[in-house]
């Protein structure tokens, strides 16, 4: 990048950091994406009686997945263009009965969500975010720990002076899942235990009783804000960049794309980190249900054949991050097939692991088309995979879109320290991803 482009990357990085600091969970990310979409004129598809070229609509899947669409002039059975990312990230979830007191300390019991190194989640400030539904049906939004004036929560670890036995264990065994209990308080009132005092406070401040946790979705996520890294400020350290780096750029690309011919679509889905399962994951029917609603409001009306043709003729960039080459652990990578910070958008022909298991394996015809598009528009790109054969690997939502017969290619941002409480990305790569998605969506065919 030249000086002007680098300056633009720095400015874009500030907008990206603001998004990351707001969208700490999939619910907050979905809400922020919908807020921004409505500012751009998008409306809920279920409020529209009919749709025509130029209309902007969105589909809200249980407040945790969002699909945005801009209607094109071509009949929808000709296919649509899609960029698809996920907005969930590894974290600690509170159990259904989380409140636990032991020897004067009140803890929240947790169950980790997604692939984590458990020891990385000790001794860092954590924010508690989510929703609780009380027994009288009231919804209570919880967001504690992100403001400077808020308290935070904390998973303690054993002091080094007494850790001789712990230090002999493997990294995987040093901290167990059941030890990931977050300190929630120690205060007691006269005649009350610390647990009773905490529950009294929750009742007073939020109207929550202990049994209400059974109907709650509460997550512990890092409470620290995004920061620039390095003297040159070229990198961003933040929680949740897998995969909100791609969600942010995909959404912005859809807002700014100029195509009028094909319908453009942006997916921001939940549950990728645990297998894309459930009602809000890509493994559900949320994509085809949303597209069916769109088709039913367009000229010609709905038919199952139209839906099938639409999805089969579509093309998608599965916008998910890739592991950046780590010089401190270079022996785990095939350097010639790795992505590098600052190297541009990363294309993965296949993901999966151990013999490409659970990979969609993109068709070379589609890769050639995307590569030519990047070269024509001077967009830097890298071809990569995640680690050595039999050493690395990972999954994305690509294979779940490919099942419809559409062309799909993984395309995302390089991340260092992926799945850690703080991950690193390069600001120029964030800008490059945005340019890639925008150019892809702006194609007339």
Q: Nearest-angstrom radius of gyration?
A: 23 Å
How far apart are the first and last residues' alpha carbons, in Å?
Answer: 29 Å
Strand order in space, largest sheet: 1-2-3-13-4-14-18-16-17
Portion of residues in beta strands equals: 15-25%
Q: Can you summarize this structure?
A:
This protein has 445 residues and is of the alpha/beta class. Helices cover 28% and strands 24% of the residues.
Can you describe this structure?
With 445 residues, this protein is of the alpha/beta class. It is 28% helix and 24% strand. Strands 1-2-3-13-4-14-18-16-17 form a 9-stranded mixed β-sheet, with helices on both faces. The longest helix is centred in the first third of the chain and has 20 residues, at 3-22. It is globular and about 70 Å long. The two termini are 29 Å apart.
Name a few traits of the molecule:
single chain, alpha/beta, 6-stranded antiparallel beta sheet, 11 helices
Secondary structure elements and pairings:
Elements: H1 3-22, H2 26-39, E1 43-44, E2 56-61, E3 65-70, E4 80-86, E5 91-102, E6 105-113, E7 126-133, E8 139-144, H3 164-167, H4 171-174, E9 182-185, H5 194-206, E10 216-222, E11 227-229, E12 235-238, H6 241-256, E13 263-269, H7 286-296, H8 304-312, E14 315-318, E15 322-323, E16 345-348, H9 364-376, E17 381-383, H10 398-402, E18 407-412, E19 414-415, E20 423-426, H11 427-442
Parallel strand pairs: 1-2, 4-13, 4-14, 14-18, 15-19, 16-17
Antiparallel strand pairs: 2-3, 3-13, 5-6, 5-10, 6-9, 7-8, 7-10, 11-12, 12-20, 16-18
Helix pairs in contact: 1-11, 6-11, 7-8
């Amino acid at each position: 990048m030249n000086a002007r482009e680098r300056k633009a990357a720095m400015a874009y990085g500030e907008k990206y950091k603001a998004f990351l600091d707001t969208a700490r969970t999939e619910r907050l990310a979905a809400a922020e994406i919908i807020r921004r979409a409505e500012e751009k004129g998008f409306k809920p598809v279920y409020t529209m009686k009919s749709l025509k070229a130029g209309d902007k609509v969105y589909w809200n899947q249980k407040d945790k997945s969002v699909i945005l669409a801009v209607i094109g002039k071509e009949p929808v059975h000709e296919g649509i263009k899609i960029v698809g990312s996920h907005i969930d990230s590894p974290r600690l979830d509170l159990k259904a009965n989380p409140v636990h007191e032991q020897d004067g300390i009140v803890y929240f019991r947790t169950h980790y969500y997604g692939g984590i190194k458990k020891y990385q989640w000790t001794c860092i400030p954590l924010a508690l975010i989510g929703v609780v539904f009380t027994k009288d049906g009231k919804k209570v939004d919880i967001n504690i720990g992100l403001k400077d004036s808020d308290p935070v929560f904390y998973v303690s670890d054993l002091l080094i002076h007494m850790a001789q036995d712990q230090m002999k264990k493997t990294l995987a065994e040093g901290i167990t899942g059941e030890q990931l209990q977050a300190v929630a308080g120690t205060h007691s009132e006269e005649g009350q235990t610390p647990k009773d005092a905490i529950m009294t406070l929750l009742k007073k401040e939020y109207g929550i009783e202990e049994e209400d946790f059974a109907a709650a979705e509460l997550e512990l996520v890092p409470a620290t804000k995004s920061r620039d890294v390095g003297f040159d400020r070229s990198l961003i350290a933040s929680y949740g960049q897998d995969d909100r780096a791609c969600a942010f750029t995909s959404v912005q690309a859809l807002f700014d794309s100029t195509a009028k011919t094909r319908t453009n679509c942006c997916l921001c889905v939940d549950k990728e980190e645990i297998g894309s399962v459930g009602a809000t994951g890509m493994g559900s029917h949320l994509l085809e249900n949303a597209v069916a609603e769109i088709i039913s409001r367009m000229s010609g009306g709905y038919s199952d054949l139209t839906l099938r043709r639409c999805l089969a003729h579509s093309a998608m960039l599965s916008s998910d991050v890739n592991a950046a080459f780590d010089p401190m652990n270079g022996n785990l990578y095939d350097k010639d097939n790795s992505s590098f910070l600052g190297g541009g958008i990363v294309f993965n022909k296949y993901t999966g692991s151990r013999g490409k298991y659970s990979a969609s394996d993109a068709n070379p015809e589609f890769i050639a088309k995307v590569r030519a598009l990047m070269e024509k528009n001077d967009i830097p790109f890298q071809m990569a995979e995640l680690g050595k054969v039999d050493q690395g690997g990972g999954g994305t939502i690509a294979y779940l879109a490919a099942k419809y017969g559409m062309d799909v290619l993984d395309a995302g941002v390089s991340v260092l320290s992926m799945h850690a409480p703080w991950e690193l990305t390069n600001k120029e790569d964030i800008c490059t991803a945005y340019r890639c998605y925008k150019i892809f969506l702006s194609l007339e065919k």
